[in-house]
Write a structure and sequence with these properties.
This protein has about 475 residues and is an alpha/beta fold. Helices cover about 35% and strands about 10% of the residues. It is built from 13 helices and nine strands. A nine-stranded mixed beta sheet has the order 1-2-4-3-5-6-7-9-8. Strand 1 and strand 2 form a beta hairpin.
Length: about 475
């Protein structure tokens, strides 16, 4: 048992396929009236995970003390997951030493997290780190990077995760850009999303093309083209693997073990500037899929066992980011006849805003992966969202949009996230501000979207305020959703 500064909590631990990795039958003690189960995806290390758990749970002891008729137990869901440690967790953990949110390379903590997340793939992780550090001026090296990043996102042989990636019907979801869009095109989009425009040297000399003016195979004035002479890059006719990437500057002494010339850019050149974001998004795609697996196959059955062994305990599910997807998918694995889930609170949820819809605006006969499952909750489903969450408001739709669809690079509403938009396309769903929710209360059932931008507002690039969730106001929202003590 860990402690949150007066509020003790336990852990339910699951493997990648949802198998429990320890006893889960001690989550509640005699006399407990309410159990708060919290899931997040920042499990780089036990210390990091527990620091976030402790900070998140900290306000609950004081708040519940005001309602002595309630005795609250807290527990966390631990599962194989990680964050890129250039992303801060406000009030909990700053970016790791050496981490550069928009710069080249991978910091040691992120490399270690990737290696732990992908057992047996350490060589691929090391190679990805080398390529990001050196940024060879070669299309072959760049394509190698994209291929390795996508291989890490593949379902392991014999894994159960393949059926848990989609939030929308397969014929509507389509092949996601993060896995199937051309690597140069996607990295260009990700690079542009990092700020208002490309790096100063990203498009070659003055008079070169404007951003977005080319696709794979198109000629790039002033840059490398197949068959064109490239000064300093192999002489006339060079243009295949090993040719220079536009924007890279000057060869440095020496050649890396991969055989590609080392270039030393003054500014990280496109397309390498978007390559780290590609690796981040392929990693988070794998976590998105795993979260659904652990939720449905692990947490859902556990909730069913709790309904049998502790039928009077009211369970409140709370998830952040990929953890929100995990607790939401637990509703798919909740046995029929189990009615112990009294509230579901999704904080900056990394899942489609159409997940609970029975009909989609662009496909009325199609529904989300959780269509109508809000009815499995004996209380409200509450989703917080914030315009300051760049991870979900900017990068999520770029990564999970449809490959090959030009609209996926823009403001297409099909691919937006719940943590950026709230819950959409559910008849009767309510929308309110956090202030209104805390002042006037929440509906007793159905879907509720709460604009939490007044507190979920701190954080630097690239994730923005995605992890800014350790606030007393959000703790009060969780308790209001669960009607704890009422």
């Amino acid at each position: 048992m860990a402690d949150t500064g007066g509020q003790p909590y336990r852990e339910a631990v699951f493997g990648a396929d949802g198998d429990p990795l320890g006893p889960c039958d001690g989550l509640v003690e005699p006399g407990v009236t309410d159990l708060l189960l919290f899931a997040h995806g920042w499990h780089n290390s036990p210390a990091t995970a527990r620091a976030l758990d402790t900070a998140f749970f900290a306000p609950f002891g004081k708040l519940v003390a005001q309602t002595p008729q309630a005795r609250l137990a807290c527990a966390t869901v631990a599962w194989p997951s990680m964050r890129f440690t250039d992303e801060s967790i406000p009030d909990v953990e700053p970016p790791a030493p050496g981490a550069q949110p928009t710069g080249p390379g991978l910091d040691r903590a992120t490399r270690d997290g990737l290696a732990a997340l992908h057992p047996g793939r350490h060589a691929a992780v090391r190679r990805l780190a080398v390529l990001l550090d050196e940024q060879p001026a070669s299309w072959a090296a760049f394509e190698e990077f994209g291929s390795l990043a996508r291989q890490l996102a593949a379902v392991p042989a014999g894994g159960l995760e393949s059926g848990f990636a989609e939030d929308l019907p397969q014929d509507e979801q389509g092949p996601p850009a993060v896995l199937y869009e051309s690597v140069p095109t996607l990295c260009r989009r990700l690079s542009e999303a990092l700020d208002a425009g490309p790096a100063p040297d990203a498009w070659g000399p003055p008079g070169g093309p404007t951003p977005g003016a080319w696709g794979p195979g198109a000629a790039i004035p002033g840059a490398w083209n197949p068959g064109a002479g490239i000064p300093g890059a192999g002489g006339p006719g060079a243009g295949g693997p090993g040719a220079a990437i536009p924007g890279a500057r000057g060869p440095a002494a020496g050649t890396p073990t991969g055989g590609y010339p080392v270039m030393v850019p003054a500014v990280v050149p496109w397309p390498w500037r978007g390559a780290k974001e590609l690796l981040r998004q392929t990693t988070y795609y794998a976590l998105k899929r795993r979260a659904g697996t652990v939720g449905e196959l692990g947490l859902g059955p556990l909730l069913g066992r709790l309904a049998r062994t502790a039928p009077d305990v009211r369970v409140h599910l709370v998830g952040h980011g990929h953890g929100a997807r995990l607790v939401a998918f637990a509703l798919r694995g909740l046995p029929h006849g189990a009615h112990n889930v009294k509230s579901l609170t999704l904080l900056q949820g990394a899942l489609s805003h159409y997940s609970f819809a029975c009909g989609l605006p662009h496909a009325p006969r199609g529904g989300g992966a959780l269509a109508a499952l809000q009815d499995r909750v004996d209380g409200p489903v509450v989703a917080s969202y914030s315009r300051h969450d760049s991870a979900l408001g900017v990068f999520y739709p770029l990564a999970f949009g449809l490959a090959g669809d030009p609209a996926a690079a823009g403001d297409d509403p099909r691919w937006r996230a719940m943590g950026a938009e709230g819950i959409r396309a559910v008849p009767g769903a309510v929308r309110m501000s956090l202030g209104e929710a805390l002042r006037d209360g929440l509906p007793g059932s159905g879907c509720v979207s709460v604009d939490a931008a007044q507190v979920v507002r701190r954080g630097g690039p690239p994730a923005g305020a995605h992890s800014d969730i350790c606030h007393e106001e959000l703790a009060r929202l969780v308790l209001a959703a669960g009607r704890v003590g009422r």
